[in-house]
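Sequence, please.
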């Protein structure tokens, strides 16, 4: 946090959207269909967010177990999960249920081929 100068909430948002977009790019050769690729990217964002929260709370979990997490830590973890995942889920929903990111015109050829 001191290196970037950003708040923790902003870092969570940037990490979440970066993981989502990077997953979409890296999974493109593996999954040609966008709906499958975006769903897997969403799973990856959620997994990274859960892993981050485990790492944040591992000192409590190793000492007291999962039941040792108090309401303050639980509230902070839920807040971090929402910050990390929300924008990715919104982008997924917009691409799945709307036509906001689809092209409205068909691409035309810039050069005409000679017969």
């Amino acid at each position: 946090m001191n290196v970037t100068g950003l708040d923790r909430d902003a870092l969570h948002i940037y990490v979440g959207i970066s993981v989502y977009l990077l997953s979409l790019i890296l999974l493109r050769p593996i999954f040609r269909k966008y709906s499958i690729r975006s769903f897997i990217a969403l799973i990856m964002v959620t997994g990274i967010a859960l892993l981050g929260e485990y790492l944040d709370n591992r000192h409590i979990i190793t000492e007291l177990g999962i039941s040792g997490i108090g309401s303050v830590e639980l509230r902070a973890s839920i807040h971090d999960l929402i910050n990390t995942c929300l924008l990715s889920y919104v982008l997924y929903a917009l691409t799945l249920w709307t036509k906001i990111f689809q092209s409205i015109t068909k691409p035309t050829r810039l050069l005409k081929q000679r017969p």
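The chain has one domain: 8-94.
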